[in-house]
Amino acid sequence: MGRFRTKLHREVPGLNLAALPDLIFTVLFFFMIVTHMRDVTPQVQYELPQGTEIEKNARKTGMVYLFIGRPMDPAGNVTSDETRIQLNDRLISVDQIADAVNEERQQMTEDARRHMTVSIRADRDTEMGIINDVKQQLRKAGALKINYSATSRNPQKHN
Question: What's the Rg (C-alpha) of the chain?
Fold first, then answer.
């Protein structure tokens, strides 16, 4: 019968890490593709109304976002029931809309100025009087292209 020899110095085989950078860059690339970066962080809570004839606006340059709803704290809790207006990243009053839109226009490129569109994202329970006041201020500022955001009545289900 043969004798079994035991090695005194057993070594763990080395781990081949040659494919690790490829894997890391593949995962990084995947997350860069699927992540949606938000231009403006809403400071007001709003629930979009439903619409029937909805088109997606593909143009991102020259967009000024106007949110109308109830104010929120950074944690997302509603702080009061009064209606507030947010233009891009700051809260403003109705009387400040024309000046704020003109300031935003001055920061844009010439091409973006020509195609400037104001996207109104108002809460479904916002009074129409406030919307009319906002539209009057936008007219004073010369911002005549207005986009109203809404949700679809028949959302498509993805399987």
Answer: 27
| Average pLDDT of the chain, as a whole number | 80
d(CA 54, CA 56): 7
Q: Are 148 and 93 in contact (CB under 8 A)?
A: no
Q: Which residues are CB-neighbours of 140 under 8 A, at least 6 positions away? A: 98
71: phi then psi, degrees, rounded to nearest 5: -65, 145
Under a CB-based contact definition with an 8 Å cutoff, are residues 115 and 62 in contact? yes
pLDDT tens across 126-154, in order?
Answer: 888 999 999 999 999 988 888 887 776 65
Using CA atoms in the order 36, 42, 45, 50, what is the torsion angle rounded to 10 degrees? -50
pTM over 0.70: no
